[in-house]
């Protein structure tokens, strides 16, 4: 039981050393990540449509 208490005391001590980002920084980085995900999703969908069209023109069923 003593080891568990020591562990949690160490966790509490380390928790105070964490440098948390500011709210504006978190929001800005979240927007960047979402934008990148949207761009890559559209890109992948576009490639899918192109390849599907190519395969259909070659009469290969998908």
How would you portray this structure in words?
The chain is built from 2 helices and no strands. The chain is an all-alpha fold. The mean pLDDT is 93. The protein has a domain at 21-62.
In short:
About 80% of the residues lie in helices and about 0% in strands. With about 60 residues, it is an all-alpha fold. The protein has a domain at about 20-60.
Write the layout of secondary structure elements.
Layout: H1 2-15, H2 23-57
Features of the shown structure:
single chain; 0% strand; elongated; 2 helices; mainly alpha; 62 residues
Please indicate the percent range of residues in DSSP E strands (runs of 2 or more).
Answer: under 5%
End-to-end Cα distance: 61 Å
**Count, helices:** 2
Helix content: over 70%
Overall residue-averaged pLDDT value: 93
Largest sheet, in brief, is: none
> Overall 3D geometry?
elongated
Low-pLDDT windows of residues: none
């Amino acid at each position: 039981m003593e080891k568990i208490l020591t562990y949690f005391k160490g966790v509490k001590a380390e928790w105070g050393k964490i440098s948390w980002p500011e709210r504006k920084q978190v929001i800005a980085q979240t927007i960047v990540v979402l934008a990148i995900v949207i761009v890559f999703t559209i890109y992948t969908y576009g490639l899918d449509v192109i390849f599907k069209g190519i395969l259909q023109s070659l009469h290969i069923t998908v």
